[in-house]
């Protein structure tokens, strides 16, 4: 037994279920996996405590341990200009800002390392323990991205962009074959970064990344599909994101982009597609059949998609869904903000459903029984933790023996002063007692109001990667 932790654990083993494990003893082996989890008063826990050569780490009252967040969609080079030009339609915004910023990063390795180091630090500060990253087209710049994430110690799935058409003349790969040669070289170099380490210490992984259908020829997509199948590689892209993008694909390919991806073998259980706001029910059924997961990015959808993502319908269909910040289409690197936006958008959709049902009843007097469309904070917390981990094929996001210990310590009551922390500091009296008890109400308050001030520690694979004084 390498490490023992005693305190309150909070996790979401299934959609809509929040479990608060009061006064539990958790053991972590020397490889960073959970190998013991029981109530601290149990006979087994008491025996383990008595036989242990060292006292456990105590998580004090008013603090709890939560799985780390997963960010399933983030454009690393766009961290450089987040919060810019969001008044434009997607395709115009890409040409005006995104491609230029990515080209600038590719041209300046020192700038790339500076931006990516700060991005990695921000992710750690915000509790993101696993992130799926879009990079740029230049191989070397993506190696810098992988190195920066590795230095911070979080799990990073790094995608070198593949795009051979419909971009700036100076920011596009020469041909499909050149793009494939480049991505093969990147995969080899990325794997070499940690190839000498035992499997449990390998936190960086390359991902095939066709940017989206408009920038990829059929030849390139077909070769990427074969490469994924032959080498069991993950895939990420954008699908059915925005009205102008969807229309572009229809005119360019004379089909929906889900059909383009499927045709080339890019809808797989190893695939995560971002956005998917324009998928209908038969398309969701196909996504489930293929095993593909979706990265829901509610903030950027509000700016660029013209339609909100039908989250409730996707979940009810059985689609694997996690959350993404979509820097810089979204301007906030915090998955906590993304959780809140997911709830807000779903509540607005539910309001629209209620009003539409009311209009139908007043029209002909018949009863309308459409299903509710909203999600609550418990479901959003699941999407940010276990849901995202499942989409990535990880065993994390939940506390159970055999899972890697990827966790964050949240402090809502300061242990010495007994005062609420950070944005919760207005609470006192009876409200303080509610927080000390760590009830569902207290967790919901943190969900709605908490920020980086409440996060004081983070572990990845049992190793501390963030520790505040």
Automatic annotation (TrEMBL):
Keywords: Hydrolase. It comes from the Eukaryota. This is Metallo-dependent hydrolase.
């Amino acid at each position: 037994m390498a490490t023992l932790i005693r305190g309150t654990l909070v996790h979401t083993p299934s959609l809509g279920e929040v479990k608060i494990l009061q006064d539990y003893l958790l053991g972590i082996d020397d490889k960073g996996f959970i190998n013991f989890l029981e109530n601290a008063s149990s006979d087994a826990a008491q025996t383990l405590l008595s036989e242990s050569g060292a006292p456990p780490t105590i998580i004090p009252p008013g603090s709890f341990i939560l799985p780390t967040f997963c960010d399933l969609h983030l454009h690393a080079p766009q961290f450089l200009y987040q919060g810019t030009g969001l008044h434009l339609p997607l395709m115009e915004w890409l040409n005006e800002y995104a491609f230029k910023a990515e080209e600038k990063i590719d041209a300046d390795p020192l700038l790339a390392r500076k931006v990516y180091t700060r991005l990695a630090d921000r992710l750690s500060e915000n509790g993101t323990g696993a992130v799926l990253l879009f990079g740029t087209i230049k191989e070397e710049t993506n190696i810098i991205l992988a190195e920066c994430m590795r230095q911070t110690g979080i799990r990073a799935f790094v995608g070198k962009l593949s795009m051979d058409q419909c971009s700036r003349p100076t920011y596009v790969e020469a041909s499909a074959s050149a793009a494939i040669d480049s991505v093969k070289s990147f995969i080899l170099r990325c794997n070499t970064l940690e190839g000498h380490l035992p499997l449990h210490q390998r936190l960086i992984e390359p991902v095939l990344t066709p940017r989206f259908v408009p920038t990829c020829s059929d030849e390139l997509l077909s070769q990427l599909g074969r490469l994924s199948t032959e080498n069991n590689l993950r895939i990420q892209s954008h699908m059915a994101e925005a009205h102008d993008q969807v229309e572009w694909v229809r005119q360019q390919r004379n089909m929906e982009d889900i059909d383009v991806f499927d045709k080339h073998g890019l809808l797989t259980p190893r695939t995560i597609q971002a956005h998917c706001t324009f998928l209908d029910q038969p398309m969701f059924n196909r996504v489930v059949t293929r095993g593909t997961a979706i990265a829901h990015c509610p903030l950027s959808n509000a700016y660029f998609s013209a339609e909100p993502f039908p989250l409730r319908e996707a979940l009810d269909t059985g689609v694997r869904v996690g959350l993404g910040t979509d820097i810089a289409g979204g301007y906030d690197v915090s998955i906590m903000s993304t959780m809140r936006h997911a709830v807000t958008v779903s509540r607005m959709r539910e309001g629209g459903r209620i009003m539409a049902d009311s209009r139908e009843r007043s029209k002909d007097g018949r009863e309308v029984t459409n299903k509710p469309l909203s999600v609550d904070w418990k479901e959003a917390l699941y999407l940010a933790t276990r849901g995202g981990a499942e989409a990535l094929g990880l065993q994390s996001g939940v506390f159970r023996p055999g899972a890697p210990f990827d966790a964050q310590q949240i402090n809502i009551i300061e242990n010495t002063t007994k005062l609420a922390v950070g944005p919760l500091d207005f609470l006192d009296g009876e409200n303080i007692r509610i927080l000390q008890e760590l009830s569902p109400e207290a967790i919901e308050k943190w969900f709605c109001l908490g920020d980086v001030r409440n996060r004081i520690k983070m572990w990845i694979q049992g190793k501390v990667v963030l520790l505040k004084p």
